[in-house]
Design brief:
The chain has about 250 residues and is α/β, with parallel strands linked by helices. About 30% of the residues lie in helices and about 25% in strands.
Amino acid sequence: MDDLIRMQGVDKFYGRIQALHDVTFTVRRNEIVGLLGDNGAGKSTLIKVLSGAVPRTSGNIYIKGKLVDLRSTQDAIANGIETIYQDSALVPQLSIARNLFLGREPLRSPRLLNRMDQDAMNDVARKLLRKVGITKPIPPTTPIGALSGGERQAVAIARAMHFESDLIILDEPTNNLGVAETQGVLQFVRGARDSGHSCIFIAHNIHHVFQVVDRIVVMRQGRVVADDIDPKASSIPEVEEIITGDLH
């Protein structure tokens, strides 16, 4: 399987503190990778580097085999990487449709008048909501603040899917969600892969990870300590031992 993303020998220093140590990390096409590790393992730093939020200190990043320099989140988005954080990074006061297109709104003709095409946004929003499994007839004009946690995550995932992101990074997407909403989000992740996307799935709940990922990568103290764990051939206790370093 071809590598979509390859981080090679990546280091990250914050002053004298080294948060990433010679990290090599790959994501293949149409693959869901579970990224696991205790607090302080380096998961968040790795994701921030890959999403362009913080610069790497050294090492290289390749996307589809091409060396790239991700200096900002916009650089990452331009290279097909969308990140969905725990809080969904949505604007509660704006509608579903506006949040789906935030910063990338289609314009009505003549474009020089800079008028948003609200009808087009609403139409796309209705289709996307159905695509990610929201069956309730929620109007696309509904403010994000009126949605449940799971519905907000669904909107964030729909946005990433609509803009043809090659890689969707989900940082604790099931945190603080109920059982039904959590299962909905996990189903959305499977659907993203089935639609041709790759995903990095970060969650403290290892049971959620085992339900959706193709491969598990474990980090500890800023290093990748295991990168090819098959959840179908491994048990949760075995992976927990790798995470904690409590190997017998």
